[in-house]
Amino acid sequence: MGPQVVVVDEDRVLPEQVDVVVVGGGIIGVSTALYLAEKGISVAVCEKGYIGGEQSSRNWGWCRATHRDLRELELSIESLKLWRRLDQTLGIDTGFWQSGILYAADNEEALADHESWLARAVERVGRDGIDSRITSGSETAALMRGASRMFAGGIFTPSDGRAEPQRAAPAIANALRARGMKILTPCAVRGVETSGGAVSAVVTEHGTIRCQSVVVAGGAWTRLFAGNLGIDVSQLTVRSSVLRTEPIDGGPEVSACTDTVGYRKRMDGGYTIANAFRSLAELTPDSFRLFDQFLPALKSNFRSMDFASASVSSMRCASHAHGSSINRRSSNRSEPSIRHRRKSTTGPPSTNSARSFRPLRT
């Protein structure tokens, strides 16, 4: 059995009134609540299931600036600063560790891509703004302890890190509850009420909470939720899969990604491993409604996408999990958001764990 999501006790007792209601109890929702509360704003978080129960507990766990879309690079750098002091500030354990993240280049073309990104990143934030560096083939292999093949090189950022997805969002939520914030679970929000054109309340399955503002942090459910309010959010979902191994002795400490596989070491000594740039897109009516808006994203990701009708996809992955977005290497084109749903195994794979690293040894 792999790591389980840390429990946040259920609470259905609604506050009469708050300044802001956050819809969604993933990492985005609880982080939003945290920093609103730090500004003296009263907040309630409403989660239809349990805290961190979807994509927020199934992602890679990477906290990185490397290979971000340059439009979000400064935000990613600031986010890392918050991660580094979060545990001490709240007295919690999110599992964050500044392990460094490596992108290995299988060939000279991939290495040139890393060099190009780094040059543009330095131009944007300055050499002191990011500590990424290009690595040689031998240093790249050394950072990927146990690799028996060589690489053309890579890009390594020592200040990048990783956190434990099963711990992070629940740890923040429990800390906020200890400070008096209402973390309501299970508590689905059914609608938003307005008065005179302004938000006045949210209607939940357990009653109404009066408020002045609403933050929707619903991950892959955002388009559906917003659509019920007459708001059209351009959003499509794709499905990716990860696997978890049992603990492995002597494996690499640095999180890394090649053109085919990405991995990180967990606190329990096992690894979370994923196909680096491969996703399954379900063809649904929204795929055609939003086709023109997503055409740039389709062009830039076409080689990494598989397509299936929703019915076929559901048959392949009958037990799936919905969730919030994952960040991947992206172009600098302006694209609508693609939200990812990721399926995670509930225990070690049936094959030998060492086989999981086979792409690194071929």
TrEMBL record:
Region described as Disordered: 319-362
Polar residues bias locations: 345-355
InterPro entries per UniProt: FAD-dep_OxRdtase, FAD/NAD-bd_sf
Transit peptide is among the record's keywords: no
Composition bias, Low complexity: 324-335
GO MF term list: D-amino-acid dehydrogenase activity
GO cellular component: cytoplasm; plasma membrane
Residue stretches in coiled coil: none
Keywords: Oxidoreductase
Positions of the FAD dependent oxidoreductase domain: 19-317
Family, per entry: Belongs to the DadA oxidoreductase family.
Protein name according to UniProt: D-amino acid dehydrogenase small subunit
